[in-house]
């Protein structure tokens, strides 16, 4: 908050702009460069958006979100890198598997994902937003249009079920890497009765 309140007010130093022709000088105040600052972040945001637009293919796109239940929040707090890597890995695998499945699409789709660890009300809410191509490239190189082009890429319920299975299976594999707070120390034992929701 201090950074935002004092942005371009002199607290972070000054700089001078000098005209090459008449040598006129104008004093400017440095910005805070805090990513939460509406002024500073807007510039970085615009540059990022412009760069992503340049990456886009001339096709339609769909928006897809993979979310972790709130029961995982304490584990994520103590194991951010491991848990968020797993979230990205399994959600990406799910999308690719659905794309490669001949019954769904039979092609390789393109996508990029953005991790959000908080919701709109600033409560912890880990989820990944994916922007996916509405279609993909088949093994023979031709473009394949999705079956439900105008509405969605893949059925949400089917995606959810596969992602859940993949994530829980991956969680078992990384269990030895996880750290648990004292009040959840019982989760370190997969056989503990109260840990069955984590390792069904």
From TrEMBL:
Transposase IS801/IS1294 domain: from which residue to which, for each copy? Answer: 110-179
Ranges for the Transposase zinc-binding domain?
2-68
Q: Which GO terms describe its molecular function?
A: DNA binding; transposase activity
Biological process, per Gene Ontology: DNA transposition
According to UniProt, the name of this protein is: Transposase
């Amino acid at each position: 908050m201090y950074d935002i309140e004092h942005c371009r007010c002199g607290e972070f130093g000054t700089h001078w702009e000098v005209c090459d022709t008449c040598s006129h000088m104008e004093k400017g105040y440095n910005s805070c460069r805090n990513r939460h600052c509406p002024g500073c972040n807007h510039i970085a945001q615009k540059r990022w958006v412009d760069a992503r637009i340049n990456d886009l293919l001339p096709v339609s796109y769909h928006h897809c979100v993979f979310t972790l239940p709130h029961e995982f929040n304490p584990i994520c707090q103590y194991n951010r890198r491991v848990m968020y890597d797993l979230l990205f890995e399994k959600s990406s695998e799910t999308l690719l598997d659905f794309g490669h499945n001949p019954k769904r699409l039979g092609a390789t789709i393109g996508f990029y994902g953005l991790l959000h660890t908080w919701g709109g009300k600033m409560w912890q809410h880990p989820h990944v937003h994916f922007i996916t191509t509405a279609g993909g490239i088949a093994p023979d190189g031709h473009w394949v249009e999705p079956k439900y082009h105008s509405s969605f890429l893949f059925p949400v319920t089917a995606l959810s079920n596969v992602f859940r299975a993949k994530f829980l299976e991956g969680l078992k594999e990384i269990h030895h890497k996880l750290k648990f707070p004292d009040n959840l120390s019982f989760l370190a034992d997969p056989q503990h009765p109260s840990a069955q929701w984590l390792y069904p």
